[in-house]
Amino acid sequence: MNINRLVTTSLLATVSFVLFIYPAPEGIFYEILGVIVFVLIIAILFQFSTSEPDSLEHEESENHGESLSVHRSIMIREDLQDQYEQLVNVVFNMITAINDNYQAAFYMLDGSGQNLNIQFSRNEIFKNTLKIDNDILQTILNQNEAVLFQQSDVREDWNELFVEKTWRGSECVFGSRVLYKNSPVGCIIIQTDHFSNIHERDRVLLTSLGHFVSMGMVKLDNIEKLSLDKYFHYQIANLLNSLDIKSEVRGVYEKVRDLCRTFFTYDKLTIAELQSDGRNYKVVMQDGFTDDVDQEKLYSITGNIFGKIFRSKDTIESTNLIEDFYEKGRFEDGDLEKFEFNSILSVPIHVNESVKYSITLERQRPQKFSTSDKNLFELLALTFGSIISWKQQYGSMRDSAMHDGLTDLLNHKAFMDRFGEEISRANRYNHSIVFAILDLDKFKRINDTYGHLYGDYVIREVARIIKENVRNIDIVGRYGGEEYSILLINTTIETIITVARRIIEKIGAFPFSLDNIDVRMTISCGLSGYPNDAENISDLITKADEAMYESKAQGGNLVTVYEKKADHTAGTESNS
Fold first, then answer.
1. What string of H, E and C letters represents the secondary structure of 414-430?
2. Cα separation of 293 and 305, whole Å?
3. Which residues of the chain are under the pLDDT cut of 70?
4. Comparing C-alpha atoms, which of 127, 275, 104, 64 is closest to residue 191?
5. Predicted pLDDT of residue 41
6. What distance in Å separates the CA atoms of residue 304 and residue 326, rounded to the nearest whole number?
7. Beta-carbon neighbour count of residue 12 at 10 Å?
8. Amino acid 40: pLDDT
9. Would you give the DSSP letter of residue 364?
10. Phi and psi of 530, rounded to 5°?
11. Which of 110, 263, 283, 454 is the most buried (most CB within 10 A)?
């Protein structure tokens, strides 16, 4: 209820008490009050019938006859719009990374709760407004996981989602809902021209993207509610906008430190990170006094004040550390006496609903941090946690999108992206690169004889062998099917041919065995070098391909180095 309705209701209740509960008064004064009551009743009924929603969210409405309960709409405040747009951009970049055959749109409910309005899209095939009673949308909004539809199965509902065009029937659409306070408020819709473009893991990734946006909506909501100081809020907005979600987390620490220097008075700032074992933490950033901490050391969460924040998961305040805490040290026993700090304000930082960091201000004097300090510091901690959450979600989804689900090697698209980056880097620093392409010999017989599960096992084991026999700086990908690709960085063919031969030998000698079926496999390899053989990606691939097929022509189990006529071969035994 907003303030106007509250005042009106209170006044009505007071006057009604005087008129109808207080013993039956008479006179013109009470007749006038009776008229006022009548007018107030009309006024309050009018207010309830025309009331506007609150600033962030509208009242919920139920779509009777359906199981769906939705928010009528969400209005993102203007000064949070940049963060909202950044969130959406991250999602669309992720969709492109998952599969560049996908066309996507993001929809949110309008004020009526009956339509979905497009918020963002990079393709004009999507309609700007969709009716929520569409069966495809109803299914998407009611399912926790991403839902897949093929055009030929839902022709009538399909046409309500897209602008008019000719469809073949093989097109598909993915949908994942977006929640706000456990109610659907929108969805991500992805369309592709053929069901063969879709990988099963994409359903999981799209579901994660829907959850990612849902989490982001809640974070924006919390940021808005805690925005108590306009200038501080402005700086928080700048913090969000100035950070690239793909950048290193160290940059977040430094931005938080800079904000603390501007808005708080302290003798020491400490940012601590809980380690994966859940029993220790590490100081990852400190400002001011620094002689009391070893940033290479792990500290236990038990027996010290800084560990208490990870145990209690609540804000800690004190102006007398010795009297208020039973622990005998701030980081470890004895340092309370050695380093005199009296006042502390420490806030837990939640990342994906768990306390993963703490941020702490300390003063040597027993001077309490103000209520305003606490509120602003908690807002900063919330924002910090939101950024880390978004970074981790983005990193996890980006990693999944870049890697082949069977082998965990880079998929074709991710490998080609890295290929371009490494060519540019080699050009800048005058380095050489070797490109290797490897193809299993006579692999079809494995699938035909023993089935695809056995074939998958062979592909995984070969990927492992290749990965284990190259350097950490080298880049390995699954080029497609039973083909693999390697970028060998800052080296030459003369140097790397021994490595290629070793990989060939190890694969030829490996005893593949699954379900009591033992087989032997060989692989053929072709090499080309940058910049000696070619100066662009396409030519390097073509020339390595030619060399690899020359290996096949020689019976396989060979490494062939590209030459103009691809006539130089090096077997695993010859030229050893």
1. HHHHHHHHHHHHHHHHC
2. 14
3. 1-84, 86, 97-98, 200, 216, 218-247, 564-576
4. 104
5. 58
6. 9
7. 16
8. 61
9. S
10. -105, 130
11. 283
H or E element, residue 372 = helix 371-402
Query: 3-state DSSP call for residue 482?
Result: coil
Can you give the pLDDT at residue 236? 60
Q: Which helix (H) or strand (E) holds 11?
A: helix 3-16
Tokens of 492: 């030459």
140, 175 in Cβ contact below 8 A?
Answer: yes
Query: What pLDDT was estimated at residue 309?
Result: 92
pLDDT tens digit string along 474-487?
999 999 899 999 99
Give one DSSP letter per residue of 189-208, joined into a string: EEEES-GGG--HHHHHHHHH
Contact 286, 268 (CB under 8 A): yes
Residue with tokens 């560990």: 307
Task: Give CA angle at 392 (394, 93), nearest 5°.
Answer: 10
Strands 268-274 vs 280-288: parallel, antiparallel or unpaired = antiparallel
Residues making up the chain, counted from first to last? 576
CB 201 within 8 A of CB 400: yes
The answer to whether the CB of 344 falls within 8 A of the CB of 362 is yes
Residue 271 and residue 457: Cα distance in Å, rounded? 45
On the question of a cis peptide bond just before residue 531, with omega within 30 degrees of 0, the verdict is yes
Give pLDDT, residue 123: 84
> For residue 506, what pLDDT is reported?
96
Global pTM reads: 0.53
Kindly state the DSSP code that residue 317 receives in the 8-state scheme: E
